[in-house]
């Protein structure tokens, strides 16, 4: 890279601005990894100063894998094929920033992820991409740092020396093409705070030119950009192996230290759950929005086996036995100690855990199991009670459809029931009626098999349930109000099939919003995908989460109660059958696992102190959480009209008064806890 471009990069970093497009040079190269050729490129011709990104063509399959991963795509995937419009001098339409990729691959892979998980991914991506919550003053554009921790694969077996970490990396390595697909050498040095420019220089020297055998020295800087302490007249210098590149098998964490006032300040530890943990976990919403008021350091810790924190060795059952909430809690304890040393956090600094949904349960359990390490926890929408038959889910959805506070009504619930009854009639009729229904409701599988019809009915129930679970959230395709409007469109003159037409329109809205062609797939396709054991860059982690439901939680949504407005086709046997088909686990073993989980953690009476459970009464998952305080040190907050993890979302002008009051209550609880921490410090000293 030219010296001028490097100086430009340094200047932008000092001002907190995003790095510009980079110029690359060298001989034509072809990069490969285990999946085959990723991209080819050639250097610009003399006199052409355009960034190479303006001539790139992104490879469809690779782009899609990055879009599914939840991490920024590399900036430079390009081929020797000219970009459309280049020959005519027109500006190419392809994006130049990895963060803003909006590529529609020609051969998009099928996404067989269950609809509720697809919705969660979509909403999180939307909120991260829209910039919601990025209002933290002049340094708001400074990206969070990324690091990696070495964790034991089996923390409960001290004789097992295997670990997650296989190499070190650049804290913003996800922004660089070269940071993914090169193997890590033995003896690699772990330094999660390595300055990005130094890594880029070494990548440039070692991979754009002929590799050399020497190593390059660099001066290590602290996370705040300060120079290291000097020993005598010489600065501490470490040796950088030029191959210290990102390998997606370590436990990832994100750091936002913009508001960290001092080493004695609090640390907000945001725990990841059953998916990729993105940089927004430490920059927007709770807990990041609380950091300025308290001068807190914000750290996000990705869950093992999800996102990029997938150990080497694949996802077969032998490997997945190291995936559980207990393993995740052991990681939390280990990370708490390691990160405290790494960032020189005072021993008196209170660590507060935050988490939402399953991660909210982890936050509560971290305080329960490690009270000497975690001072307090905020557990949002945390389903702490495991349950095999989660019939309460649809009971809450049914109530939400009748709630005027969120746009429901008794007529809406009745219309939903009529729409599902119409669907079942058409399925039973077969022939042309079934074929038409398949096309109208986005079923990509033929509906001749009962199991495929059950897949469609389950997806339709998830569509309605998702409207309640994510009601009124930024990026949610449907709210309860909008869904009811579709069901009731036409008023009193509606025909007998009007509710069905409303359901069909709702399907079209969701499919379009998610960018998918199908609402449901065949059972055989679903099972086949869940059986894939190769480690893939996937932010959703369906195989992993299914394994945890089969071995710990259950959480299987059913609708067999007479009050349920949806299809009453028995769903529990079908869901339990997945555990057998994919992992060879029997129904009795799944039931036993659920019982053991509640015995270990205490279900809805965990007995943890200094935990605040936050829920919304529109969220179906609040039925498995703690909604009433069990004592002065175990608090609960139920927010009227709020949906799943809504308290953690970035603030918006449209937020309801009850949601605003709920967030104020969380701040007040933190103030109470920090008062306790200060009194404890005064008694014991630092």
Tell me about this structure.
Helices cover 36% and strands 11% of the residues. It is α/β, with parallel strands linked by helices. It has an eight-stranded mixed sheet with strand order 3-8-10-9-11-12-15-16, with helices on both faces. Strand 11, helix 8 and strand 12 form a beta-alpha-beta unit. The longest helix has 28 residues, at 657-684. The radius of gyration is 26 Å and the shape is globular.
Secondary-structure-based class equals: alpha/beta
Distance between the termini: 48 Å
Low-confidence sequence ranges: 18-111, 135-139, 165-249
The best one-word shape is: globular
Assembly category: single chain
Nutshell version of this structure?
The protein is of the alpha/beta class and 686 residues long.
List the helices and strands and how they pair.
Layout: H1 3-14, E1 29-33, E2 36-41, H2 60-69, H3 115-130, E3 145-149, H4 196-207, E4 216-219, E5 230-231, E6 234-235, E7 237-240, E8 251-256, E9 267-271, H5 291-294, E10 297-301, H6 317-320, H7 325-342, E11 351-356, H8 358-369, E12 376-380, E13 387-390, H9 392-402, H10 410-429, H11 431-440, H12 450-469, H13 480-487, H14 498-514, H15 523-530, H16 542-553, E14 554-557, H17 572-583, H18 587-601, E15 611-616, E16 634-639, H19 657-684
Parallel strand pairs: 9-10, 9-11, 11-12, 12-15, 13-14, 15-16
Antiparallel strand pairs: 1-2, 3-8, 4-7, 5-6, 8-10
């Amino acid at each position: 890279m030219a010296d001028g471009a490097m100086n430009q990069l340094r200047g932008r970093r000092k001002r907190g601005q995003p790095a510009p497009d980079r110029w690359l040079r060298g001989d034509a190269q072809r990069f490969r990894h285990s999946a085959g050729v990723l991209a080819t490129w050639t250097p610009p011709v003399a006199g052409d100063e355009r960034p190479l990104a303006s001539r790139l063509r992104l490879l469809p399959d690779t782009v899609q894998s990055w879009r599914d991963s939840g991490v920024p795509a590399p900036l430079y995937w390009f081929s020797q094929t000219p970009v459309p419009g280049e020959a005519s001098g027109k500006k190419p339409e392809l994006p130049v920033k990895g963060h803003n990729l909006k590529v529609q691959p020609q051969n998009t892979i099928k996404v067989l992820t269950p609809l509720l998980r697809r919705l969660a991914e979509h909403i999180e991506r939307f909120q991260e991409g829209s910039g919601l919550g990025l209002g933290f003053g002049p340094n708001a554009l400074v990206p969070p740092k990324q690091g990696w921790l070495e964790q034991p694969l089996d923390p409960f077996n001290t004789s097992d020396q295997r670990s997650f970490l296989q190499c070190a990396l650049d804290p913003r390595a996800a922004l660089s093409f070269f940071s993914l697909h090169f193997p890590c050498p033995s003896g690699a040095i772990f330094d999660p705070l390595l300055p990005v420019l130094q890594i880029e220089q070494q990548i440039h020297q070692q991979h754009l030119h002929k590799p050399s055998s020497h190593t390059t020295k660099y001066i290590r800087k602290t996370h705040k950009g300060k120079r290291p302490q000097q020993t005598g007249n010489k600065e501490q210098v470490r040796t950088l192996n030029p191959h210290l590149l990102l390998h997606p098998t370590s436990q990832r964490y994100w750091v936002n230290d913009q508001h960290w006032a001092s080493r004695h300040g609090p640390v907000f530890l945001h725990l990841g759950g059953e998916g990729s943990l993105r940089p927004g976990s430490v920059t927007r919403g709770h807990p990041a929005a609380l950091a300025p008021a308290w001068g807190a350091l914000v750290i996000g810790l990705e869950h093992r086996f999800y996102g990029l924190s997938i150990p080497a060795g694949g996802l077969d059952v032998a490997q997945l036995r190291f995936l559980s909430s207990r393993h995740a809690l052991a990681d939390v304890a280990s990370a708490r100690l390691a990160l405290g040393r790494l960032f020189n956090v005072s021993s008196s600094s209170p660590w507060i855990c935050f988490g939402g949904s399953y991660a909210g349960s982890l936050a509560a359990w971290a305080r329960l199991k490690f009270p000497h390490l975690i001072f307090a926890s905020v557990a949002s929408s945390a389903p702490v009670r495991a349950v095999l038959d989660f019939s309460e889910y649809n009971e809450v959805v049914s109530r939400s459809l009748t709630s005027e506070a969120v746009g429901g009504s008794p007529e809406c619930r009745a219309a939903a029931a009529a729409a599902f009854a119409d669907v079942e009639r058409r399925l039973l009729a077969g022939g042309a009626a079934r074929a038409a229904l398949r096309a109208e409701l986005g079923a990509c599988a033929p509906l001749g098999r009962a199991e495929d019809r059950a897949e469609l009915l389950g997806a339709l129930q998830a569509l309605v349930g998702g409207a309640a679970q994510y009601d009124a959230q930024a990026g949610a395709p449907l709210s309860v109000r909008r869904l009811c409007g579709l069901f009731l469109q036409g008023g009193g003159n509606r025909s007998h099939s009007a509710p069905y037409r409303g359901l069909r329109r709702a399907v079209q809205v969701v499919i379009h919003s998610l960018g998918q062609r199908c609402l449901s797939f065949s059972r055989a396709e679903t099972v086949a995908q869940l059986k894939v054991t190769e480690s893939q860059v996937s932010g959703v982690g369906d195989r992993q989460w299914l394994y945890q439901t089969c071995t710990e939680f259950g959480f299987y949504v059913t609708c067999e109660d007479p009050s349920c407005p949806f299809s009453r086709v028995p769903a529990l046997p079908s869901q339990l059958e997945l555990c057998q088909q994919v992992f060879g686990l029997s129904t009795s073993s799944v039931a036993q696992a659920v019982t053991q989980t509640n015995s270990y953690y205490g279900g809805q009476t965990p007995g943890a102190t200094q935990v605040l459970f936050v829920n919304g009464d529109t969220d179906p998952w609040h039925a498995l959480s703690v909604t009433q305080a069990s004592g002065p040190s175990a608090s609960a907050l139920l927010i009227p009209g709020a949906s799943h993890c809504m308290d953690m979302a970035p603030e918006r002008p449209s937020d309801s008064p009850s949601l605003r009051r709920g967030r104020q209550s969380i701040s007040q609880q933190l103030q109470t806890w920090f008062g306790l921490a200060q009194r404890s410090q005064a008694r014991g000293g630092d």
